[in-house]
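In these records, each integer encodes one residue's backbone shape. Here is one protein:

___
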Amino acid sequence: METGEGIDEETINGLPSGITLSWGIVKQPRRGPKGELSVKKIVDAAIVIADRDGLAAVSMSRVAQSLGFTTMSLYRYITSKEDLLVLMQDAVCDIPIPPEVAGKTWRQEMREYVWACVGVFRKHPWFGDIPIKSVPLTPGNLQVIDWMLRIMRDFQLNDFEKMSFLLLVSSYCRACGLIARDMDRAIREGASPETFSGINYSAALKQLVKPDRFPYLHPILMSGAYTDEADNPIGDDLDFGLERILDGIEHYLQQKISGQG
């Protein structure tokens, strides 16, 4: 989409350049070898570098080198590294949205939403390193938000309540995503799941954590719950936490319905 195709240029002038690029609201360069370079090719190359070597390894010069172009060639398409990061973030948010299925409950759909979002953090470990600077503004991000709002389409809530639940569940996605990402990274670097859980340090902690200084942590540590030494009756901690969030949403919905009755 280029400017002029149903787009009021005055309205979009206040948007950051990376955002307009994500929407395709940009005039493509007229100079240079036609078809050899594009915004998508640049973004895809940057993602490959970030996936392999981390976000710090991404630079305009490194991306240009990987594509066999000069750095200045890239600047004709993407004007800054900051814009490139915006486009990278949006590209990896462009995940498949499952179709609506008759009979599937909203709880099932929210579980799908959460673990799909967590999957982005695991597949692209650098994703969580990009700071949040505003509400989502790019199409890939907004498609994911639209998915969550579809799940809540029949909730008898006002728009602000829905947006608050969106923030709550998405924040849990981010927290779980960062934990899963860091665990994946630790294991790739040679750690074992037992090391990550702390079980290998349990004996040392039991000597260091004294009841006079840690009166509430000490009994939990001694029971084996802190370092996963004991059998866990609640199962996976992240699944358990998600179910309690969904319970809270369900309770709130029931209260709204009974209040209206």
Notes: Residues 121 and 128 are 6 Å apart (CA to CA). The chain has two domains: 9-91, 94-191+245-261. The radius of gyration is 23 Å.
